[in-house]
Amino acid sequence: MAKYNLKINGKTRAVDVDPSTPILWVLRDHLNMPGTKFGCGMAMCGACTVHLDGNAVRSCSMPVSAVGKMAITTIEGLSENAAHPVQKAWLEHDVAQCGYCQGGQIMSAAALLKSNPNPTDEDIDAAMSGNICRCGTYLRIKEAIKTAAKN
Amino acid sequence: MENINNDSTQAPPSGAGGLSRRSFLKSSALTGGGLMLSFSWFSEAKAAEKLSELNLAETWSELTGYIKITPENVIKIFCPNPEFGQNVMTSLPMMVAEELDCDWKNVVVEMGTHDNVKFGAQFTGGSNSVRMYWKPLRAAGASARQMLIEAAAQTWAVPASEISTKAGVLSHKSGKSAKYGQMASKAATIAVPKDAKTKAVKDFTIISKSKKNAEGTKIVTGKPLFGLDYRVDGMLIAMIQHPPAFGMKLKSFNAAQALKMPGIKDVYSFKLYDEGFEQGGFDTRTFNELLVVVGNSTWEVMNARKKLSVQWEPAGDVKETMMGRGGKREVTIPGRLETTSKQFEMMAEFAKKPATQLRKDGDPEAAFKNAAQVIERTYNAPFLAHNTMEPMNFFAHVQADKALVAGPIQAPGWMEPTLSKILNLPADKIEIQMTRMGGGFGRRAYAQYVYEAARISQKVKAPVKLVYTREDDMTYGIYRPMYTATYRAALDANKNLIGFHVTGGGIPESPIHANRFPAGALDNYLADSWEIPSNITIGAFRAPRSNFNAAAEQSFLDEVAEAMGKDPIQLRLDLLKRAKANPVGKNNDYDADRYIGVLELLKEKSGWGKPENAGKKRGVAAYFCHASYAGHVVDMVIKNGEPYVEHVTSAVDCGVVINPDAARNMVEGAVVDGIGQSFYGALTHKDGAAEQNNFHNYRMIRHNEAPQKIDVHFVENEIDPTGLGEPPFPPVFGAVANALFKTTGKRYYNQPFSVEQPQS
Ligand code: FES
Ligand code: FES
C-alpha cells in the first residue's frame, strides 16, 4: 500500500492503495467515480479513457504510481451539467445506444479537439479508432465531433 | 396480462416461466383489465429522491401502474422493460405520453422495478418490447387521461364529454381549464375505465416525432447507470475462475497463496445448481462447479485470482435435466474437447447423413432430377461472442429471509423462479432491480451470472458484486452457434427456377426455419435440418439463426439470379409476387406484400439499376425476421487494399415508427454490427478452450471501418409497430457478401470474410 494525493477534476483526493493499481480501479472502487468504464483492461477498447494533463490515456493500463503531479480529468469532471461542447454535440446527435462506451468516446474526442480543433475524417478515425462502440454508433460520433468542432 | 400475451407471437418457453407463479396468482385476481390499473395516493422513497432533484413536494398521484403525476404537473412514466440500448426507456414512455395527451417536456422517465403483475412480462429481447407493449401502454395512457377528464368534470360540474385535453391541459368550452397536476389527486380516486379510447395514428403528436434519449444527459456526464456501477456500503467483489476449456472440470485447488494476498476474504468452490436441478430454457450454464475469489476491491481480487493453483480434469459426458421447450427431458452433454477445424469436418460429415425434414412442397426430387442445371453451394459460420461493452456482472445481497439482486438483465421474470429455487426463498422475498445494460444482444437473457452472484452472497453473507473480466466474458460465453447450410437450386433449360433445397445444421442447433422465404414462392421446395450436440454453450445473438440464414440464403439467391440472367432484386420480387398471388403451402411466416414494399423502397432510394450507379460495386439483400422487414444495398470500394463498405442504403418496414431518430440509430448500429461480424467475427476453439479472449485477438469493427454514410428509410404505414433490435441486422451479412463478389470477383461462402480464402 502507498499513499497518493491525486489531482482529479480540480480537487485533491487522497488514496491509500497498492502502487500497481490502475487509475481505472482507483477511480471506480476507491473514489466512487464510476463514470470511467471497464471494458477490456488492456488498452484495447477505450472505455476507460481519461485525460492526464489534457491527453487521452487508457486508465485501465496506467498504474496510479505513474500519475505523479499530473492532473486527471474524468467524464464527471469534463463539465458541470453537460456544458462541454463535445457533450452538447453528443446530445444534439443523440449518439448513445447502450451508452456504455460513450464516456470514453467523449473523452477521446475532447482530447482530439483540444489538440486539433478542425480534424479531418482521417484525423477523427486515427484518434478514435482505439474506442470500440459495440452498438455501432460510429457515424453519429463522427458527426458529433464535427459539430463540436464548429462550436 | 392478457393484452401482453395475446399480442406476443413469441410466448416465453414453458418452464422458463414468463410469469412467476406469484404474479400469475395476482394477475388472475385482477381479471377484467389487461393491465394492472391500480391507483392510490402515493409517496415513496424513490419518488422522494427524484423529487429532491426537481425540488417538488412529495406528493404523487398514481393514475395507473405506469403513471404518476405531481400537483406541480410533473409526470413520471415508468418503463417496464430493461434498457440495453434499444431506446425502450424513451420509446415505451412515448406511447404512454401520447395517449395521456401530455406535454413531453413535463415527463420524467424511470425504470420500473421487477413486477410482472404491474408491468407485464418485462422481457427485453426478440425485438419484442415495442410490439408487446404497444396496446397495453397506450391503454394505460388513455385510461389515465379519461380519469383526469372525469375528475375535471366532477370538479367543474360539467359533462365529461365536453372536456378536451391538449398537451397536459384540460379545458371546457366555458373557459375553465386546469393542468393535469391540478386534477391528479382527484383523478386517482376515480374508477379505472375499462375501454378508454386510443387515438388514431393520424392524431399522434408524440409518437413518430423524434424524442431525445431519456437518459442522454446522464450518459454523457458519466452518471452511475450500469450494473458495474452499482454499489452499496460494505460490498465485496467476487470473481470466478472457470475451467479453461469446455469439457473440463475442477479436480483440485490450492488457495493458500491467493488467500495471503491483500484484501482477500475467501476462496472456495461452489456448485451453481444442485444435483438433479431442472434447468429452465434460460438457465443455461457453462460449467457447474466454479472457483470463486472474494475480496475488498476489483484489483485485489484480480491479482489474487492469478495466484490460485488449480488442477482441472476432463469432465466426460454429463447428464442434465432440462425443462423448457419440449418439456422435461434428460440430455447428455458430450465431454468431447472441441477444436474448430474438427468441428467443421464433423459438420461436413453430418451434412451428408439423412436429416430431419422440416418442409416439403411438390416434388423437389423430381425437379432436381429433371434439371438442366443444378447450383449447389455450402456456407459456414463460426461461433460468435457477444462482447457487450459492459462485461457480465451482477450485485446480490442475500440474507436469511430475503434477497436483493441488481444489475444488467434482459429477462428478470425468467430468473425469479430459478433464484427462488437455488436460494430457497419465496419469490416475493426476492427483489430484482434492472440497471441500464451496457449492451445485451441476447447474452443477458441467460442469467447464470445472476445465480452465481446470488449463491456467492448467500455463502459469504455479505453484499457482493460479481465481476467478469473481458477474458471471463469472452471465454465463458453463451455464443451464437456454429452453423452450416447447403443450398441447391434446380434450373430448367429456359433458366426457370424449378426446385429449391436447403439442408443445414449446427453445433449444437440448426439454423433452418421451416417456413421462411423462399418457401411459399416455389412449387418444389425442401428444407431439412440436423444438429450436433456439444458442451459449448449457445444462445440468442441478435437473431442467431436468421443472421446466418440471411447471409447464406441471400448470397445464394444472388448467385441463382446471376445464373438465371436476372437482376437480383427482380428475382426476389418475382418470387414474392408468386408467393403473394398464389402461395405454395399454408404456413409461410412472412407477408409477401410487406417484403415487396421494402424491396421497392430499397430499389427507389438506392437508385438501383440507375445509369449513374452503374460503376458502383453494390450488393443487395433483404430479410424478414422477428416481425419486421429489412433490406440493404451496400456500396463497396477498395480502401488501403482492403474491401470497405463506404455507403449503405437501408429500407425497413416495422409498422408505425415510434421514435424515428432513435429507430434510425438502431438501423445504423445494426448495419455497422453486421459489417463487423461478417468481416471479422469468430470465436474458435482448440481442445475446448476459446482461442480469443480479449479485443487484441477478437477483432471488432472500429471507427475507420464503419461506412461514411448510412441512409435509412422506413416504409410509411399505420400497421401496429414491430421491433428493430434484430430485423435490420441479418440482411447486412448477405448484402456484404454480394458486394464482395462485385468488388473482388469472388464469392465468399465462409465467415468471417476477412480471413476466408475465397473461391473463384
Ligand atoms: S478498459 Fe481500458 S482500454 Fe478497455
Ligand atoms: S453505445 Fe453501446 S457500446 Fe457504444
Descriptive notes:
- The complex is a heterodimer of chains A (151) and B (760).
- Chain A has helices at residues 23-30, 85-92, 102-115, 121-128, 138-150; strands at 2-8, 11-17, 49-52, 55-58, 71-73.
- With 151 residues, chain A is α+β, with helices and mostly antiparallel strands.
- Chain A has two domains: 2-77, Ubiquitin-like (UB roll) (Roll), CATH 3.10.20.30; 85-150, DNA polymerase, domain 1.
- A five-stranded mixed sheet of chain A has the order 2-1-5-3-4, with helices on both faces.
- In chain A, a hairpin with a 2-residue loop joins strand 1 and strand 2 (11-17).
- In chain A, helix 2 (85-92) packs across helix 5 and helix 3 runs parallel beside helix 5.
- The radius of gyration of chain A is 15 Å and the shape is globular.
- Chain B has three domains: 60-220, Aldehyde Oxidoreductase, domain 4, CATH 3.30.365.10; 227-320 and 392-467, Aldehyde Oxidoreductase, domain 4; 482-744, 2-Layer Sandwich (Aldehyde Oxidoreductase, domain 4), CATH 3.30.365.10.
- In chain B, helix 13 (412-423) packs parallel to helix 14.
- The radius of gyration of chain B is 27 Å and the shape is globular.
- Mean pLDDT of chain B is 90; it is low at 1-58.
- The chains are: A alpha+beta (151), B alpha+beta (760).
- The interface between A and B is large, with 63 and 66 residues.
- Bound molecules: FE2/S2 (inorganic) cluster (FES) (2 copies).
- One FE2/S2 (inorganic) cluster (FES) binds at residues 38-41, 43-48, 58, 60 of chain A.
